[in-house]
Amino acid sequence: MRQPSNLKRVIVDYAKLNDDILNLLVEKYPFGYDPADIISFKNAKGEMVDCVEVKTDDTLYLVKVSKRLVAAMEDFDADDYNDDDDEDDDNDPDFDLGDEPEEKE
After folding, report:
1. Is there a contact between 46 and 97 (Cβ–Cβ < 8 Å)?
2. Are the CB atoms for 39 and 47 separated by under 8 Å?
3. CB 29 within 8 A of CB 15
């Protein structure tokens, strides 16, 4: 059973993190967070909120994450790789168009 905590609890949106909290996140989750790290709860409006937790000496921060954030983080490298030159995608060995549609005769 969990012990009651005297820590102040603060919910913060990921987009509004300050450098101190961001550094705590990077230290705690150097390789990213796993689904097991996510804490889900309903807020006062009855909306489901997903957060990851980081602590300081006096504060417990619940940092909001979202599926869009996760997708943006995963797609970051792919999106920025050839942002300025989409015409060269055919020459990029890492670029996969998938199966080409068959030509009609």
Report:
1. no
2. no
3. no
Question: Please, what is the Cα angle at 22 between 29 and 82, to 5 degrees?
Answer: 80
pTM above 0.90, yes or no: no
What are 49-98's pLDDT values in tens digits? 999 999 999 999 998 886 655 554 445 334 444 445 444 444 444 444 45
Q: What are phi and psi of 25, to 5 degrees?
A: -60, -45
Identify the pLDDT of residue 101: 52
Query: 63: which strand partners?
Result: 12, 52
CA distance 10 to 8: 7
Cβ 42 vs Cβ 49: under 8 Å:
yes
